[in-house]
Every structure is written in structure tokens, then in C-alpha cells.
Amino acid sequence: MGAGTDTVTSEKAPQRFPSPASNKVATCGIDYLIIGQGLAGTLIGYRLEAAGHRVHYLDAPEQTAASSVAAGIINPITGRRFVKSWRIDELLPEARRLYGELETLLGVKLWHDTPLVRTLFNRGDENDWLARSADAGYADYMEDHPALGRIPDVTVPAFAYACVRHSARVDVSLLVSAFRDRISEENRFIAGSVDYDRLPDGYDRIIFCEGWRSRFNPYFDFVPPGGNKGEVLFVTTAEAPLDRLFKHRVFLVPQSDQSYWIGATSENNFTDDLPTPAAREYLTDRLREVMTVPFTITDHRAAIRPTARDRRMVIGSHPERPRLYIFNGLGTKGASLAPLGSRWLLELLEHGQAPPHEVDVRRCLDLK
């Protein structure tokens, strides 16, 4: 899953905000308030701090956020037609660099280079893969005869296997929690909800990074509401964990704690962000079709991915309120999209350079 944030609406006034002057990191620059400290809020906040600005954050940690459930998969080749992820040649180096900086800042391991092995179900799949991998623009990302490691020891045999190169896993949940610890210690984080009728004073600019809950934001109500509910399982086995990502009906993503992330479901029509028995049963049945060793379900989680109707990020300033900005719509590929998206927003904030039209929030005026 991709990653989102988790700000809630409320009729109550928000809790008292720390003074912008209390920021211990910067002594000059613009005062920013970021509403929503998920993946999007964390990355643009870090970039603004590095540029010398004073940044505070408002979020509601008790609410479920996509960032806390996301697998953080970086997958350059996706879909049944084996196409390159959008702008992957640009996304990958930006992601590696930015997550590397945050690893140094926070003292945690976030980026895990991990091969992604996927199954090919029939001769048609195999032919399509081979044809695509012969394309000069694809060859560096695709491997026809991958090393499987222990995959055959714990999963059912497949017709054939292929490998996606330059794949990785980003520990999104660890990033968000470690960054939150840091800004909390510096008195720059407030746990609370936003009152849209009484936006906090004392900030030059406010950036909304609210994930799917941006549908409740009256300032950006011209952005078509999105959201996709995903549910995942966490399981353990008695076997040593795989050393690579594996996709066969579902994703098997080894975690740092020796468990597996299993997922994910996709539901556009939802009424809440709670786990459901139906999704648990579906994922369990799919996993039983794949794994040949016993497994134990240790957790079942759900969250809403922040999506836009045209499946592109939403970045930019309000057309009539230049103090207000938005960074949203990361969807299922948040771990790879957010670094580049946050750079585009920084360039807008610092230099007035508009983001590409396909992600500019103003395109949404034509989508309503």
C-alpha cells in the first residue's frame, strides 16, 4: 500500500499550538504548519527544515493512517502488462537519496534493496515478459531467469518466474514514527485535530497532507474525493524468512521482525477504515494457495489509501488562498512517489516553480 496521513475533522478548537519561535532547528525562514504527519507530511517537512524554515506539525495519532499499514514496496515493473511505473527512472534516484538522508538524520534503517520475484502463470505471460524485457528501456529492470532463494521451499511451484530489478522496501511506518519522536522532543508536534473554521494563526503557510480525509477539507473541495481501502495480514512461520519480495496472487513481504506482510485487498466503496472478516478470509485463502508451510496470523490491519480520480498526486497552492497548499494522492505507490512529489512542492514553495500539470492541484478544477 501506499502511504497517507491521518488528520481528522472536529467541531472543537484544536489544542494550543507551540509558538513557531520554539523551533530548535531553524532560526530564520518562513513559518510552516503541516497538517498530517504521514509519509507526505514527513518528507515535505524534512525538506523545508533542511531549507532553513521553521516547521510545526498537527496530526491525530489515534486515527489509522495508510503510512502505518503500507508495505513500502518500490516496484519498477507493475501490472499484468509489465509496464514501467510512472517516471520510475526519475523516481528511483530521488527516493534512494532522500531516504538515505533520513536514515542518517534519524539513525534508523529505512531502505532495503530487495529483489522482487513474481510468478508467470502461463505461456502467454512468459511471452509477454520476454517481449517487454527485450525493450531497451526495460532491460535494466527485468530479469528472465532469477535466483529464487528459498521461495520453492515454502511456496507452491509456478509455471515460471521472473524478477524485477531495482526493487526495494521502505519502512514507512518506522520513518513516520521516528520522525515524530524527533519533532515531539523539539516541541514541534501537536496531537490534535484541525478546525477548518479557525485555522491557527502565526504561520505564513499551511500545507494539508491529510490523506484520504482531505475529502472533508472545505478549502480543497474542488479536488474530487478519492480513497481506496486496503487490508493486510501479518503472519509468521517456523521457517526462516525469505530474503526477497515475492508476488504470487498476493504479495509476501518479509519484515524486519521476521514476520511477513501479506496483501493487499482493494476496495473503492467503503464506509470505514476497520478490518473486515471478509477481507481476512480472502487474504487467508489466497495465502493458503501460495504457501506450503503452516503460518500464524499475528495481525490484521486496514487503512484508506489516499487516491485521486486520475491516479496522480495532488500538489500545489489554493487558487484563491495563496497561504494554503496541498500534498496528497500518493495512492498505492507512495513510497516511490513521495520523494519526487515533495521535491516538486519544495520547488514551488521556494522558487515559484509550478509542478508538472499532471500532478498540479489546479488540474482538478477540470475534473469536478
Automatic annotation (TrEMBL):
GO cellular component: cytoplasm
Annotated region described as Disordered, given as residue ranges: 1-22
Ranges of compositional bias, category Polar residues: 1-12
Pfam families according to UniProt: DAO
Alphabetic keyword roster: Oxidoreductase
An example molecular function term from Gene Ontology annotations: oxidoreductase activity
Protein name: Glycine/D-amino acid oxidase-like deaminating enzyme
Species the sequence originates in: Neolewinella aquimaris
